[in-house]
Amino acid sequence: MFRCVDDGVISRYLGVRDDGPSIFERFGYTEDDGSPIWLRSHSLRHYLNMLGQTGGLTSTEIAVFS
User: Fold this and answer.
1) What is the DSSP string of the chain?
2) Which residues contact 44 (CB under 8 A, 6 or more apart)?
3) Could you give the CA distance from residue 30 to residue 32 in angstroms, rounded to a whole number?
4) Nearest alpha carbon to residue 16 among 36, 39, 48, 47
5) Are 62 and 47 spatial neighbours (Cβ–Cβ below 8 Å)?
6) Going residue by residue through the chain (66 aa), what tens digit of pLDDT does each one get?
């Protein structure tokens, strides 16, 4: 039903840890060269900040969100 989510769970789902299939492996996604996809959680922070900037958020709004 529900379980606690910590940095280990997120790392495993993003493919940083090797103790189970990542979310990308479960759905068959790979890089263009066929290698596995993996992300660090900090990469997602940068991506979300970029989306905020292109969406017109101010630096203060992005800082609060981050």
Assistant:
1) ------HHHHHHHHTSSSSS--HHHHTT-B-TTSPBP---HHHHHHHHHHHHHHTT--HHHHHHH-
2) none
3) 6
4) 39
5) no
6) 787 888 777 777 777 766 778 888 889 999 999 998 877 778 888 888 999 999 999 999 999 987
How many residues are present in the chain?
Answer: 66
pTM of the model: 0.52
Q: Which residue has the tokens 């900040």?
A: 49
CB 36 within 8 A of CB 22: yes
**Angstrom distance (rounded) from CA 39 to CA 17:** 10
